[in-house]
Specification:
- The structure holds two protein chains of two kinds.
- By secondary structure, chain A is an all-beta fold.
- Chain A is globular.
- By secondary structure, chain B is mostly beta strands.
- The termini of chain B are far apart.
- Chain B has no helices and eleven strands.
- Classes of the chains: A mainly beta, B mainly beta.
- At the A-B interface, β5 of A face β5 and β10 of B.
Chain lengths: 121, 107
């Protein structure tokens, strides 16, 4: 069974940094693109970033470009999201999600349970 | 960016009703359209990918259709466990974008 478990969320002050992790199991992790998708409280879904299976290709939403960095360690079957210069509008539940073999034209299945990031002073 | 617009925003229906949700893209996205179901406090779940392909394990009462800019998700006979929020998502080009969601409520 495919399983994704996020960790690393919490309360952080504006301007601070946080690193999220997503531990994967049940599939050949290195073969699949992975994404982060977030959901602000009571709001809809926003794709944040994606990374290819090898880690050699990445993409970001404009809202996080230059502040967030996606990476992966295929030996540890773990996906990361380094978040710097955090803003109040980054407050959200962050989900990791498994993509397709190619980084193009991705749908997300399955999703992890999510980890809450709250940016507030 | 490609904008995705769902209608209606809220839908009230009885158990057993046939329900249709519409999603419109701001430009043609071929068939790169996916549908998700989200229940309160839970992660979204993929229902339909590539406009009309049913994800494994999803009941056959769910179906998707459309291409270009206009798409629909149909639930042929609404069940109690189907009350949730439904989102469409375009995977034609990044940034991949979602519709604002359609909440299906009990009437």
């Amino acid at each position: 069974e495919v399983q994704l478990v996020e960790s690393g969320g919490g309360l952080i002050q504006p301007g601070g940094s946080l690193r999220l992790s997503c531990a994967a199991s049940g599939f050949t992790f290195s073969s699949y693109a992975m994404s982060w998708v977030r959901q602000a409280p009571g709001k809809g879904l926003e794709w944040v970033s994606a990374i290819s299976g090898s880690g050699g290709s990445t993409d970001y939403a404009d809202s996080v470009k230059g502040r967030f960095t996606i990476s992966r360690d295929n030996s540890k079957k773990t996906l990361y999201l380094q978040m710097n210069s955090l803003r109040a509008e980054d407050t959200a539940v962050y989900y990791c999600a498994k993509g397709r073999i190619t980084i193009s034209n991705n749908w997300f299945d399955p999703w992890g349970q999510g980890t809450l990031v709250t940016v507030s002073s | 960016d490609i904008q995705m617009t769902q209608s209606p925003s809220t839908l009230s229906a009885f158990v057993g009703d046939r329900v249709t949700i519409t999603c419109r893209a701001s430009q043609s996205i071929n068939n790169y359209l996916n549908w998700y179901q989200q229940k309160p406090g839970k992660a979204p779940k993929l229902l339909i990918y590539a406009a009309s392909s049913l994800q494994s394990g999803v009941p056959s009462r769910f179906s998707g259709s459309g291409s270009g800019t206009d798409f629909t998700l149909t639930i042929s006979s609404l069940q109690p466990e189907d009350f949730a929020i439904y989102y469409c998502q375009q995977s034609y080009s990044t940034p991949w974008t979602f519709g604002q969601g359609t909440k299906v409520e009990i009437k």
